[in-house]
């Protein structure tokens, strides 16, 4: 049988001892935990800042909603007032139209009275002329 070649590590590349490797791993892990806690504190600090800003924005938003609600109420009141003004304007226009109709009727009655007065005078003159023609 032929000898089976075995692989042996080179003399320079020696492995570190087991306990040393565990110590290195735990120190690396501790460093990672410390770095994570430092970054967690930074994140927590930033989160608190963001929460404060969010709270301020919520308060500002609530204030804006209240202002908007007041403006909408004011707009509805103005709309009601404009509706009343519109109704009053329509009444005034109808009254003006009725007044114009009354003026037109008064003018027509004046013309009729003038015509009647003229006809009465003409009739009186004709009566006087016919009576004077009958009387010698």
The number of helices is 1
The count of DSSP E runs of length 2 or more, i.e. the number of strands, is 0
| Amount of beta strand | under 5%
Overall average residue pLDDT: 85
Which overall shape is indicated by the principal axes computed on the Cα atoms? Answer: rod-shaped
Order of SSEs, N→C?
Answer: H
Q: Termini separation (Å)?
A: 191 Å
Uncertain segments: none
Largest sheet: none
What Rg is obtained from the alpha carbons, in whole angstroms?
57 Å
Helical content class: over 70%
Structural category is mainly alpha
Folded structure, characterized:
This protein has about 140 residues and is mainly α. The chain has a domain at about 15-100. It is about 85% helix and about 0% strand. It is built from one helix and no strands. It has one helix at about 20-135. The longest helix is centred in the middle third of the chain and has 117 residues, at about 20-135. It is rod-shaped and about 180 Å long. The relative contact order is 0.03.
């Amino acid at each position: 049988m032929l000898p089976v070649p075995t692989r042996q590590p080179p003399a320079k590349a020696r492995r570190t001892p087991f306990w040393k490797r565990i110590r290195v791993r735990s120190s690396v892990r501790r460093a990672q935990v410390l770095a994570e806690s430092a970054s967690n504190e930074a994140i927590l600090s930033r989160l608190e800042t963001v929460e404060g800003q969010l709270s301020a924005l919520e308060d500002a938003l609530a204030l804006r909603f209240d202002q908007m609600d007041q403006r909408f109420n004011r707009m509805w009141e103005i709309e009601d007032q404009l509706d009343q003004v519109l109704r009053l304007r329509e009444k005034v226009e109808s009254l003006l139209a009725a007044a114009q109709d009354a003026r037109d009727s008064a003018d027509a009655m004046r013309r009729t009275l003038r015509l009647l007065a003229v006809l009465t005078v003409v009739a009186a003159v004709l009566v006087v002329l016919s009576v004077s023609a009958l009387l010698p």
